[in-house]
Amino acid sequence: MADSGVIDGPGRKDEIERAKSEGKDLTKEEKQRLRKEKKQQKKIKEKKDDKASQENEKEKKPVTSAAPASQPPTQPTVQKAPSAVPATAPVSVPASEASVPADKPTKTKAELKAERRARQEAERASKQTKKGETGQQAATSKPKAPPSDLQPVVKRLPEHIQVDNPDVLKKLAKKLERQQIPLRSDYGYKVSLFSHLHQYSRKAPLTQQLSIPSTVIHPAIVRLGLQYSHGIVAGSNARSVALLHAFKQVIRDYTTPQNEELSRDLVNKLKPYISFLNQCRPLSASMGNAIKYIKKEISNIPSNCKEDEAKNKLLNCIESYINEKIILAGVAIAKCAIEKQKISDGDVILVYGCSSLVNHILCKAFEKNRKFRVIVVDSRPRLEGKEALRRLVQKGISCTYVLISAVSYILPEVSKVFLGAHALLANGYVMSRVGTSQIALVAKAFNVPVLVCCETYKFCDRVQTDSFVSNELDDPDDLIVTRKGTTPLEGWENESSLGLLNLVYDVTPPDFVDLVITELGMIPCTSVPVVLRVKNVDQ
Amino acid sequence: MELQAVLMAAGGGSRMTDLTYNTPKAMLPVGNKPLMWYPLNLLEKVGFEEVIVITTKEVQKAMSTDLKIKDVKMKLDVVSIQEDGDMGTADALRHIQPKIKTDILVLSCDLITDVALHEVVDLFRAHNATMAMLMSKAHEFTETVPGQKGKKKTAEQRDFVGVDKSGKRLLFMANEADLEDGLSIRKSIMRKHPRMLIKTGLVDAHLYCLKKAVVDFLTENKSISSIRGELVPYLVRKQFSKTVNSQKLKDDTDDQTQEKNDGPLLISSRDEPLLQLAQERSCWNDHRGDMSEAYHGGKLRCYVHIMDQGLCCRVNTLAAYIEVNRLAPKLFEEPSVHPSADISERCQMGSDSIIGAVCHIADKTSIKRSTIGNFTTVKEKVKVTNSIIMHGVTIEEGCNIQGSVICSNAVIGRGADLKYCLVGNGQHIEPEGKSKTNILSNGQ
Description:
The complex is a heterodimer of chains A (539) and B (444). Chain A has 539 residues and is of the alpha/beta class. Chain A is 51% helix and 8% strand. Chain A has helices at residues 2-22, 24-39, 41-58, 66-70, 74-80, 88-103, 108-140, 166-178, 219-230, 236-252, 262-280, 285-299, 307-339, 356-367, 385-395, 407-410, 436-445, 528-538; strands spanning 347-352, 372-378, 399-403, 416-420, 423-424, 430-433, 450-453, 505-508, 515-518, 521-523. In chain A, strands 3-2-1-4-7-9-10 form a seven-stranded mixed β-sheet, with helices on both faces. Chain A has a three-stranded antiparallel β-sheet with strand order 5-6-8, with helices on one face. In chain A, strand 9 and strand 10 form a beta hairpin. In chain A, helix 10 (236-252) runs parallel beside helix 12 (285-299) and helix 10 packs antiparallel against helix 13 (307-339). In chain B, a hairpin with a 6-residue loop joins strand 9 (159-163) and strand 10. Chain B has 13 helices and 32 strands. Chain B starts with a strand and ends with a strand. In chain B, helix 5 packs across helix 8. Helices cover 24% and strands 26% of the residues of chain B. Classes of the chains: A alpha/beta (539), B alpha/beta (444). The A-B interface holds A 205, 207-208, 210-215, 219, 222-223, 226-227, 230-235, 237-239, 241-242, 244-245, 248-249, 322, 327, 353-356, 384, 386-388, 390, 393-394 and B 1-5, 46-49, 105, 116-118, 121-122, 125-128, 271, 274-275, 277-285, 288, 291.
């Protein structure tokens, strides 16, 4: 039909104009997709037709015969958008295009012709949009190397650091509603510098809004979420191990529904669980890497694999991941630190807070009969140093305990500082418990070497230079303490100009860190991106 | 599935026989709804879809005809047991053991509460506890009880409950009846929890979350017959027993037999080493000040949630029944007058009275702070104050009823004057009869 051509034409132009108006967002998505499409062009074309028909079965819009054809150019963009990307821009486009052809009355005679012509138009349109996008890129952006040579992809701002943006909040609410997970509401007055972050109260757990025999979320995940939000499982390694343990239970209890493939369906099943855990407590970098690994393993399961075999394979993968990346890495790091004389006789070692890896190293060194003593530095409100102190003293190591306010007093005695890390960022910055950067700074001023111990699975490709842009705000009520019967901060919510801030993490620049001990060896802080690149090439 | 709900509705109401000799306790009307409707409503609100109801054949028959219970949208799996039996609550659990596939939430049919159930269940989930229960601060009953002359309070056996500093971990539980010489606390408990708060003014709500392993343990130990009386104190004591905590294999035959008995209780999940690893690496401890790890290395843990606000009442005495009739209707936003009741215009009705279905209230009556059941007829010039009138009662003209409980199908003759009386099922009070603080019934 002549009509379809006319209407598709403005439709195409609309798409390009919309693409221009969305600006950099769509172009960057298109960059990603262009790269992938160049490699797999033929496969995409075959899949487009399949996916088009599948998408139309899934979508409940009243799609006429011409509409499916016009949808393929936007379908791949919708499908390949990363989950964190708000999909409103691509979604609105197919919506408008669907509504436009839907207005036409369907005529049986020319239907087939229209379909054929529309499909041709659509394929021409997709090619043109690609060319149009590349044309725009060349015009608007600075001259860059061709996209295929650029390795690191510019990521969008994640949702959890845009809490003061109501649009982002609305999108999050919609996404959670779709996954049937309750939305946890923020609590208390937030200090203005950190108002872009979530702040939850421990007294309002997420389980309040869930049904009690939880059917939407697997019970192991509910238990895990509760343990995270109460702080029963705390510490990067512990959280990852507990997460993988819960995933093992989920996989064990999983049965593939009919007409679904395990590789695709299980990943979809895990998404709401991950959102739920994120709502209970923001995911750590180590957890994020573990989840990426599992998702990759699941999607790599061949479709002809039987369910029991596949499940066993996945369980073994998880076991081996924990064994290699956490347990054996810890052993290797301890061995490295002890044999390379990083802990020698007569040393006075300063540790901060409770890092499972640093405690492990010190205990192993003590077993190998090194003579050293430890100074444990602690800070409120978590007072994790008390737990580290208990573990070290139980082994027999002689320890001193100070609060962080005494660090410059005690540093002249110290010969080395051992710090644990929550994550190592791609620009060499160390993200760790709040207070770590203080200690590194003071140690630098006293010329005391600072060694960070970190397994490679905690390396993440995020870049951050300050502790403000992305952090975690803990429950502000933790700062309230009762001494001798009085609670000075009791009615803090009623004071309009008073805000309580309970930060969890901070970021230490690489200039203050002398060495990072990993299972790959002892590397300087600035070699983190090299390790990441090597890991990516391996995978 | 995470939790299965079990409702125990076979109790006889042994402490209020005047009310229960004709009506089973589970079907006593409270605010014109049967007593067992309240726990069922609590479960339904929270999101349960199925409940196993353990009850007698009599109650089962009554349930099938009751409208309110038919309204319940959950699937009720009714298991009937012998009425005469000395079947305790634990025996009943043993009886339904084949149906139990996961952890259970056991409720008693006489519990009326508005607790946020997630508080109890969260303790059970977060700490991987073997048992979590609900208790509430006891409130004094203010209403005068019919049949009780004066304010004589029977000295009820007190419960001694010991909790730790945080108020959540249950360390000690004993009833006054079991303590002959005095309260003795083991040194092992004091060493682990030097600060213990012992409370006596608590009401046990008989709401327990139990692990599936406990039900398996019950099938092996047939000597335990009551949950509250025997199982709960046993579990609380077992938290600190040596065989549970020590991980060395013992060669003594005595210890071996005890281990066999406790075997099911200590069954660990398949991924125990991973859980251990996570706990080791976690920098959390539930106590400070001594050298032991979290939970002192104990695998068996019992937790309690103590409610200090809100309604939590167990209807097992007459006083409780009257108190609850006053408070329960306030939990729900329902109209106090049933739409099908026929109330004449010249009737004075207080706002805190409840009128049931298909009632006939005639002129010049005064109804204050009372509950009137379904199918009741109240004739002219009747004054009803502070009373509970059950279903199918007929009150003739000119009666004066104050502070009384009139059971189903009773007939109060003309001009009778009842103060603080309890009239049993189907009783007839003579016209012009006067009664004060009396229990008029057939039973006992």
